[in-house]
Amino acid sequence: MAEKICVAVRVRPSISEESPSGTFWKIEDNRISLHKLHGTPISGLSYAFDHVFDESCSNSKVYELLTKDVIHAAVDGFNGTAFAYGQTSSGKTFTMNGSLNDPGIIHRAVNDVFQKIQMISDREFLIRVSYMEIYNEEINDLFAVENQKLPIHESLERGIFVAGLREEIVNNAEQVIKLLESGEVNRHFGETNMNARSSRSHTIFRMVIESKGIDTGSGDYSSSDAIRVSVLNLVDLAGSERIAKTGAGGVRLKEGKYINKSLMVLGNVINKLSNGAKQRAHIPYRDSKLTRILQTALGGNAKTSIICTVAPEEVHVEETKGTLQFASRAKRITNCAQVNEILTDAALLKRQQLEIEDLRRKLQGSRSEVLEQEILKLRNDMLKYELEREKLEMELEEERRSHKEREQRIRDQQLKIENLSSLVSDGDRSSSQDSMKESPKDECNDFKTPCFKETSNNAFVAKRSNYSELPDFSPLPDSFSNVADEDTWFKMNKGYIADLDSLQTTPARKVQSFPPQDITPDCSNDNYKLELQNLKTQLELVIKEKDELQRKHEEVQINRRLVGEISELKQELDLSNNSLESSEQRYGNLEREFQKLKDERDSLLQTVSESSKNITFLTDQKENILKDLNSEVQRRKDLEAEIKQFSVAFASRQRSLASIHGEFKSKIEKLRAENLVRY
Ligand code: ADP
Ligand code: MG
């Protein structure tokens, strides 16, 4: 059933503090329009969509209103795509990846898919995921960094697919979230300016959902029902601004500095698709990797929703208008989605059916978690094996192609040789007849050989080096036709250009080949012989060249083997170099540490010697002090002895004084008594 692509616009919160000076975007229901500052709408700049989300709208609401139906339909077997389009920093990644508090569409979709399939008990599901990035028109695998520059292939069974892209079979949402996180790490790998990269690259997260009905009553897994296969793409596009903006003021760089080719082609594709069925004749999906991958989503069997993110600031008004115009055109596109049911081996469920049944039988009676784990492991192993085989097939195909090219080149050379040989044999015949015939005119007519004549404008020209004197003439066979320019000659020879001066045996002469009717009577036998010799030399050269080519062909085979061996050796060498480098690093570190320790030891020794000097000094001082102390002690002892002697002397003196005093006192008393008697 034909249905329109669902288109919504989401305005992110304003980042700048500045209030608008002239215009602002007004949102009413599902309409967004540019207004003058005082409220009047600007005519021609009002757009209506399926939804218009204002800056307060959460990812949860966007998911509920815009994407949920697409996701649920994918579980039911419809292809689905949701992508975010808009200028850099308008909120695409915020919408698709979200934040911790408000997970984005991808997380919600993954959770929703697993929740939904758990509620469907009568179907068995097989889900696999992949994650890729398109950067500068190259597809890189975000689940496996080694898978770079992957090609897009198309087959009847698989439709359009990225060859060699890793796919992981998953059982629950947590596994997918973990894988996505590892993918993000790969995206950051080796990239210094992540913002610059993300504004120029597209990421496509893809889920392939396969399901088949099971007979729940008997638990019969071999039900032969058709298998539903749907592909769900969740895409975070590169920044849609066509011109680089720099600085806070958004100074515009010159147009055309960097235009993202995929986005340009996406715009063209949307334009053509929106022009209705009449002009749908040629849609240039093949002009870019992105549109080729999203071909079904854009113009075919898919349910698609586009969220166009815009920035509200006045400085971005032109970009916002551009985004809204893109959104308006996208809204006119009609798709025709239908459930994809297939019976062939294109479904992985079908391809793996026998092995899984076998495993189920073997593990009968095991716990269901064990069984689930084992099945998941087996499925992933088988898928890896398939992908590996696909990769090898691609390489083989490549090898076949180059082999064919080489063979073609050899065939071309052989053709050339045959042409020349036939020419030479003609020449031989002509020279033998020449000996019998007299008339130069007859000779020319009979044998149709080249003769000497002024050049005509439409003759072959082979490359001639600068010092060649006669640039207008060259000894070339007629059998190639006489109308060709240098370029055609180059192509016919597959890149081989005869340098006339390398034909040393033949000096540059005025030689020109012409069809028989052009033959003039002034052909001479001598000249003809020379011409013949010339051709013979050329034939020899070509034969040599052929041998050389064959030799080279063998060499190429040997080289290829050698290259393989060399690359293995290189890998080994790289490994040893790496380990050598790391040991060198370790050695350097150890040496540095050793030097540090040596320095420390030296400074310690220095300190020790200074300390020991100090100690000697102090010991000397102590000894001196001790000596001083001893002499002091001695002096004190002497003094004490003297004091003792002195006190003994003093005591005896005191005693004698006391006795003198006593005597004196008694004498005074006696005298006093005598005086009293007298008076
Ligand atoms: P884009 O992927 O388009 O370049 P981002 O999603 O990285 O832009 O958004 C740029 C900045 O704006 C981020 O810091 C993001 O968190 C913020 N942002 C974008 N949209 C919203 C929104 N609706 N609500 C809150 N913040 C948002
Ligand atoms: Mg982004």
Automatic annotation (TrEMBL):
Keyword Hydrolase part of the UniProt annotation: no
The answer, when asked if Heme is one of the entry's keywords, is no
Q: Residue ranges under compositional bias (Basic and acidic residues)? A: 426-446
Segments for region (Disordered): 421-446
Q: Provide any one GO MF term from the record.
A: kinetochore binding
Give the CC-aspect GO terms: condensed chromosome, centromeric region; microtubule
Where are the coiled-coil regions? 349-416, 525-642
**Cited Pfam families:** Kinesin (PF00225)
Do you know which SUPFAM superfamilies this protein is assigned to? P-loop containing nucleoside triphosphate hydrolases (SSF52540)
Return the similarity comment: Belongs to the TRAFAC class myosin-kinesin ATPase superfamily. Kinesin family. KIN-7 subfamily.
What is this protein called in UniProt? Kinesin-like protein
Name its species: Gossypium raimondii (Peruvian cotton)
Lineage start: Eukaryota, Viridiplantae, Streptophyta, Embryophyta, Tracheophyta
